[in-house]
Design brief:
Layout: E1 2-11, E2 14-24, E3 29-33, H1 40-47, E4 55-60, E5 63-64, H2 72-78, E6 79-82, H3 94-104, H4 110-123, H5 139-152, E7 157-161, H6 169-184, E8 188-192, H7 196-202, E9 205-210, E10 213-219, H8 220-225, H9 230-240
Parallel strand pairs: 3-8, 3-9, 6-7, 7-8
Antiparallel strand pairs: 1-2, 1-4, 4-5, 9-10
């Protein structure tokens, strides 16, 4: 469904991605792990056309992602993104946030978007929060609204950019449980995360990125339990057993 071929991306003199080649199959969950600044989030932003890239190719079901092409609108309706900081519209209720994309981007009838929005709030455990504004919701609730908003576009895949890193520890579980349910339902997902237990339980594959390159990739349990590369071993040791 998603293919990256020797993708390079730089910000000024800083080359952030140095030849990323990877693929994500339909209904697969791929977790991207690695130290801060390694290029993880940039990969997601390039897939969704939020950032352009200088060399290589990114394909979504065979269509090339080009941030400057009119076709990027169609690709974004197929590949939703959930951000670290929620990015909800503060002046709209939870339900209105969810309805926004279907109505204004996909031109869906309001009644249809309203019905699906209520169904999605129920799906993420927030049926009673339809009329609440973001400031009236906890971080975990806001992130669940953001997931429902992504689902409202009926995407073929969802990109998650560290969806729990801005949350208080006690709120992380409620977001991960929604993501687990999506994985069980067969949603194609690419997840940048520091939640190693989640990656081990839910991911089909893990990519370990460092310095803009894929250092190691493979089945999640293999990479996380028996990493082969010394850099992966060192990273996991620091993450799983911090001082």
């Amino acid at each position: 469904m998603i293919e990256l071929r020797d993708v390079h991306k730089r910000f000024g003199a800083n080359e952030v991605l140095k030849g990323i080649t990877a693929a994500v199959e339909k209904s697969e969950v791929v977790c991207i792990i690695g130290p801060s600044g390694s290029g993880k989030s940039t990969i997601l932003r390039c897939i969704n056309g939020l950032e352009s890239y200088e060399a290589g190719d990114i394909l979504v079901e065979g269509a090339r992602v080009d941030a400057h092409s009119p076709s990027i609108v169609d690709i974004r309706t197929q590949i939703s993104m959930v951000f670290q900081r929620f990015n909800l519209f503060p002046h709209r209720t939870a339900l209105e946030n969810i309805m926004e994309g279907p109505i204004y981007v996909k031109k869906e009838p309001r009644a249809e978007a309203l019905e699906r929005g209520r169904d999605l709030l129920m799906q993420v455990g927030l049926a009673g929060k339809a009329d609440a504004y973001p400031t009236q919701l906890s971080g975990g609730q806001q992130q669940r609204v953001a997931i429902a908003r992504a689902l409202a576009m009926q995407p073929k895949a969802i990109l998650f950019d560290e969806p729990t890193s801005a949350l208080d520890p006690e709120l992380v579980g409620e977001v991960l449980s929604v993501m687990r349910k999506l994985a069980d339902d067969g949603m194609t997902m690419v997840v940048v995360t520091h939640e190693m237990a989640f990656a081990k339980d839910v991911a089909d594959r893990v990519l370990f990125i460092d310095g803009g390159v894929i250092v190691e990739q493979g089945a999640a349990k293999t990479v996380l339990n028996q990493p082969q590369h010394a850099r992966t071993q060192d990273f996991l040791r620091r993450v799983l057993h911090p001082l």
